[in-house]
Amino acid sequence: YPSEFLMQKITEDNQIPLHLHVSVSLQYVAGLKGNALVEFFHGNIAEVENEELRHLMWSSVLFYKTPNVEAMACVLLSTKAIYFLLDDSFIHADEHQSEFWTKENWDCDNSSFHLSCCFVLKLNDLQSVNVGLFDQYFRIAGHSAGHIVTCLTRDSYDTHTFIQQLMAVLSLLARTPSPEPVDKDFYSEFGSKNTGKMENYELIHSSRVKFIYPNEEEIGDLAFLVAEKMDCLTDLQSLNILLYVLAFQVNLIEGTAPNTSLLQPKTLILTSSDLFLFDEDYISYPLPDFAKEPPQRDKYQLADGRRIRHLDRVLMGYQTYPQALTFVFDDVQNQDLMQNLALDHFGE
């Protein structure tokens, strides 16, 4: 350790997504290569001497206690913990975080000194991992509200790779085995299954961490919600969700440089007849065991919806991934242009 393959892999993965802005401190981390990156990990981040860095990933993250603040983080997976290296501006982004982050050491006037804070989730505290629809994100949950983090990878490959690496690292943990299951009688065995609700697919890892994957019912619930917005509940059987993707809506800021734009996280859902943008709660659902009341907002809130038949053209940028798409619709107040044309328009 570190092997040549690992050095090459973490160097390749240590790239900030071009469309997201990060602080100088995180840019410094992104500039490290190979051995310098491993030394930086052991000198500044690792909590014990014998832990090994196994995986590195850049991702947007959400914390359960601050669900409205999406922050960029360098996620480092070691044999002992998951480290989230965060932009120092994240701490001041939400006034409700005073209890979440301790602020005693942050009065630094020296402008050449760039500070990052690091959130640590020890693998021994890990209880479950919820994988989002189509592997666009995943939620890591511990035993309390302060130990729940969602990584919005917006990329199924990144999600899959991290989950595989996490499972491999968890296999190294020495945990006491689960108690033997108690033999159940016939009635308790079959009575509990008749709730009428299908549970999500669960994989219990040898470390006793649950990996929970969405089932078909979640897509069905989403299709029902979309159909409700379309006012076509009678035609639910023929409604197919063709695409579900976590994206950003680009809003240009007036009065600033022409290239300045604000990226707003949205969930884009495409059906055979409509295009929808939803504001989705990626952190609160499914409800953790300790939650005493439902979250303040629904999981999906409709932000915009347009008919595909009103789509006039799609403009594509020439930059590399992530690609920018502009959808141009020809609807006037959500009505067909030809709908109100009649002969009397040409009379007196």
UniProtKB/TrEMBL annotation:
Keyword field contains Cytoplasm: yes
GO BP terms, alphabetized: Golgi organization; lysosome localization; regulation of protein localization
Subcellular localization: Cytoplasm
Single GO molecular function: kinesin binding
Chain ranges of the Nischarin C-terminal PH domain: 241-347
Cellular component GO terms, alphabetical: endosome membrane
Main location: cytoplasm
Entry keyword annotation includes Cytoplasm: yes
Domain PLEKHM2 PH, chain residue ranges per copy: 114-178
Keywords: Cytoplasm
Name assigned to this protein: NISCH protein
Record organism: Eubucco bourcierii (red-headed barbet)
